[in-house]
Amino acid sequence: MAWPRVKLVVTADDFGYCPRRNEGIVEAFLAGAVTSVSLLVNGAAAESAAELARRHYIPTGLHANLSEGRPVGSAHHGASSLLSPEGFFLGKMGFREAVAAGDVALPQVREELEAQLGRFRELLGRNPTHVDGHQHVHVLPGVCQVFAEVLQAHGVRFTRLPLERGVGGCTWLEAPKRAFACSVERDAGAAVGPFSGRGLRWTDAFVGLSTCGRHMSAHRVSGALARALEGTPTGHSLTAELMAHPGYPSVPPAGGCGEGPDAFSCSWERLHELRVLTAPTLRARLAQDGVELCALHDLDSKRSGEGIPGEATLVTFLEPSQL
Predict the structure, then answer these.
(1) If 0-12 CB within 10 Å is exposed, 13-18 middle and 19+ buried, where does residue 297 land?
(2) Across the strands, what pairs with 89?
(3) Residues 6+ away with beta carbon under 8 Å from 258
(4) CB 179 within 8 A of CB 146
(5) In sequence order, what are the beta bridge partners of 12?
(6) Which of its termini does the chain have fewer beta carbons within 10 Å around, N or C?
(7) Of 130, 131, 110, 65, nearest in space to 92 by CA
C-alpha cells in the first residue's frame, strides 16, 4: 500500500520494574529501536532506571500505576478504596471491577496520581514527557476525568489513547486477551472527551494491543499500522505510537512493584519483544513503509499545516472493534 508519511513513537513500558527490564529497555533505546520510555515510580528498580535515563538522555514519561503493587502516596498509611486489606493495589481486573461497582474514591485516585508525579520529579528532576497508564487504567470511566485534570494542572500535555483500530478482528489473540483489548478500546473512545477538554494530546494512531508479548512480529506491527492508517489520504503526515514491553526476563525475587515480579515478566515474552524490536527485519519493514521513528518531543516540531497529534484523524479511530 502507499502509506502517508508517518512519525512513529516506540514506547517501552514498565521501565523501573526490575534491573533486567531496565537493561533490555536501555539496550533497545541505544540500538535506536525504542524512542521513549514510561517509568513505574513504584517499581523495584525505579531509582536505577532514573539514573539510566539521565545518563543516556532517554525521553521518559510516567507510567501511572493504580493496579499493581504498593502505592506511592499516603494510601498505605490507612484504609483506602485503592488497596486490598494487605495494602496492595487491587490488580488489573480487580481495580476495573471496583471502578465499575463505584467502589473507588476518585479523590484517592487524584492523591495517588499527584504522589506519583511528585516522585517522578524527585527521581528525574523534571516533569515527565508524557503520562500514560499501567494496564491502561488511565482511560477507565471516572478515572480518566481525574487523570486529565491532574495532567493539566501539572503542565503535562501528552498522554496515550490506546485505541487500536481492528483489534477485535485479531484472531491470533486468545479470547480473554482479545476481550480485554476490546474493553480497553471502548474505554479509550469514551476518554476522548475528558482528555481533549483538558487540552491533552496524543498520537493520531496507536498500536500495541495486538502485538504484545509472543504476538509481536515485524509482519504484525506493520499490519497493525496499516489498519490504523487505512483510508488516510496519501501524502498526509501522521503520528503513531507503538506500545512495547521489551526486556530480559525477571529473576525472582528481584522486581515488581512491591509484590515481586509476575509470571509474564519472568517469561520469555519480554525477551521476544526485545529481539523483534532490535532485529533488522522490523526496521527495514518500517523504512520500506515510509515510517520514521521519533520521540514525543519531535511531534511538537510538526510544521504548520501538518496537523496536531490527537486531532487529525480522530473520527477514523473512533470506530470500536467488535468481538
Answers:
(1) middle
(2) 83
(3) 42, 44, 69, 70, 88
(4) no
(5) 37, 244
(6) N
(7) 65
Q: What predicted TM-score, i.e. pTM, was given to this entire model?
A: 0.92
Taking the C-alpha atoms of residue 29 and residue 15, their distance in angstroms, rounded to an integer, is 12
Q: Taking Cα atoms as reference points, which of 240, 262, 241 lies closest to residue 253?
A: 262
Give mean pLDDT, residues 75-96.
Answer: 89
Q: CA 235 to CA 3: how far, in whole Å?
A: 8
- At residue 232's C-alpha, the angle toward residues 230 and 237, to 5°, is 125
- Cell numbers for 175: 479470547
Confidence of residue 49 (pLDDT cuts 50, 70, 90): very high
CA angle 81, 152, 181 (to 5 degrees): 60
Backbone angles phi, psi at 55, to 5 degrees: -65, -40
What is the C-alpha to C-alpha distance for residues 167 and 224, in angstroms, rounded to an integer?
A: 8
The position carrying cell 483506602 is 80
Q: pLDDT at residue 232 above 90? A: no
Phi, psi of 7 (to 5 degrees): -100, 120
Backbone angles phi, psi at 44, to 5 degrees: -65, -25
Phi then psi for residue 15, to 5 deg, are: -60, 130
**What 3-state class would DSSP assign to 158?**
strand
13 as an active site residue: the answer is yes
Q: Give kind and range of the element (H or E) at residue 297.
A: helix 296-299
Burial of residue 228 (CB within 10 Å: 0-12, 13-18, 19+) is buried
Q: Which amino acid is at 261?
A: P
Q: Give the helix/strand (H/E) hosting 36.
A: strand 36-39
Banded pLDDT at 78 (limits 50, 70, 90): low
Q: Which three cell numbers stand for residue 43?
A: 517499581
Let me know: does 10 contact 203? Beta carbons within 8 Å.
no
